[in-house]
Amino acid sequence: MFPVYGPATVTWFLMLLLYWGSLPFALALLWWARRRWQRPGAWRRTKALVVVVLAGLFIDARFIEPQLLTVRETRLGLGAPIKVALIADYHLGVYKGRGYLERVVDRLNQLDVDAVLIAGDHTNSPDRPLDELLAPLARLRHPTYSVPGNHDESMPGPPLAKQLRDALIRHGVQPVEGRYLDAGRFIVVGLGDWTAHKDQPIGLRQAPADKPRLVLMHNPDSAMQLRPGSALLALAGHTHCGQVRIPGLYRPMISTIHPFDRGLHTFAPVPTFVTCGLGEVKLPLRFLNPPVIDVLDLR
């Protein structure tokens, strides 16, 4: 129940309150609307209907949409016979648990891809040992590569970068931050987290140029330091695409310096694809923005 790696902070208690207080809050809204509906008067009934609609939207954003799992296929037209699955930000801990990751792995194993790329933020104040929470990753049938995110580097969150790396290796996932690996049809280069100032492209400078190079990072702002033409594609997460994606209002929720959102961005020195991720932080809500596995065809 309590965090395994570090103390239970005020922020952690607030997240717990938001998570477990959501159902009583929704029921209170519906109870209030029912009381108003039972009283005579058109205005009272109008207010009751408005509250019912708002309660329905809240129930969708809190209890339905975060538990969905969608697969979005995108053809990028980059001329390379490569197909990868990109995931990020499942944030195991307060809001998401091992059971959800089991579903993600089941869905990934059904896909015809060359590799699975994980763009960081595996954790959110985990309440179980990482070996236990990440155990489903051992069942992945594709080669899998990973980099850490800001929540894995204690920005915010407990300091567990080493424990995370060790757990990933034990479950067959290859951490690539600060280095490159030959992934068969392409070279995967990993950057550390931008917030932790560990995103220097050391591996990219060392990587051979005889195969297409894909740069995996957490924060897409890291792509802005790359040289034009140094890689075929950069892949990132972090933004959650606003998480609660209310049209016209969600953009301030995206914590990047540059105007990254979702999908492919060509204003960066290297084409950069950003996934909306799988989990939630701050609020246990997703709206008009279900959790997603992005399947990218680079042909």
Question: Could you characterize what this model shows?
Answer:
With 299 residues, this protein is of the alpha/beta class. The protein has 2 domains: 10-66; 70-297, 4-Layer Sandwich (Purple Acid Phosphatase, chain A, domain 2). It is 27% helix and 17% strand. Strands 1-14-2-4-6-7 form a 6-stranded mixed beta sheet, with helices on one face. β8 and β9 (187-190) form a beta hairpin. α1 runs antiparallel to α2. The longest helix is centred in the first third of the chain and has 29 residues, at 10-38. The model has no long low-confidence stretch (mean pLDDT 95).
Summarize the structure.
With 299 residues, the chain is an alpha/beta fold. The chain is 27% helix and 17% strand.
Q: Per the principal axes of the C-alpha atoms, what is the gross shape?
A: globular
Number of strands: 14
Question: What's the name of the CATH homologous superfamily of the largest domain?
Answer: Metallo-dependent phosphatases
- Beta-strand residue fraction: 15-25%
CATH class of the largest domain: Alpha Beta
- Helix and strand element order: HHEEEHEEHEHEEEHEEEEE
Cα end-to-end separation = 46 Å
Report low-confidence residues grouped into runs of 5 or more. none
Biggest β-sheet, characterized?
6 strands, mixed
Number of helices: 6
The CATH architecture designation of the largest domain is 4-Layer Sandwich
Topology:
Blueprint: H1 10-38, H2 42-64, E1 70-75, E2 83-87, E3 92-93, H3 98-108, E4 115-118, E5 123-124, H4 130-133, E6 144-146, H5 161-170, E7 174-175, E8 180-182, E9 187-190, H6 202-206, E10 213-216, E11 233-236, E12 263-265, E13 272-274, E14 292-297
Helix pairs in contact: 1-2
